[in-house]
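Reply to dn_fold:

You asked what the input looked like. This is it:
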Amino acid sequence: MSKVPVTVRGHEKMTEECKRLKSKDRPAVIAAIAEARAHGDLKENAEYHAAKDQQGFIEARIKELEGKLSNIQVIDVTSIDAKGKIIFGSTVELIDDATGKDIVYKIVGEDEADIKSGMISFTSPIARALIGKSEGDTVNFSAPGGEKAYEVVEVRYE
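and this is what came back:
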């Protein structure tokens, strides 16, 4: 299985979530299960069943995060000399040719992507079109809403 790229910040967030789940959430749900067991009959104990469900979700998320963390390649964009080109981890300022609107995107891994925060996956159509371009270039690509054109205003490595 090939390594999955992730930014330094994405790696930190996944690691922090995994630690929190193991050190706080898991012990809390174990305590909730023990307390619910003390109430007696488990067949009709909604608190017990809810806590067991929560435990299942926590354990599944821990397993998922550990699997992802074991198969990632952390890419620190600040340590790469990209010579002004857009690469994984770059922050890109664009102008929409149709509307003149300024847009800022950071190209990140699939697990980090959040369009509302301006973080786009490197597998998205726009990111694939942007990678390799430089300031001043015009980027044309097919989006779900039709053809789009953006001008690259600035490329930052932060």
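Residues 77-156 form a domain with the Chitinase A; domain 3 fold (CATH 3.10.50.30).
Hope that clears it up.
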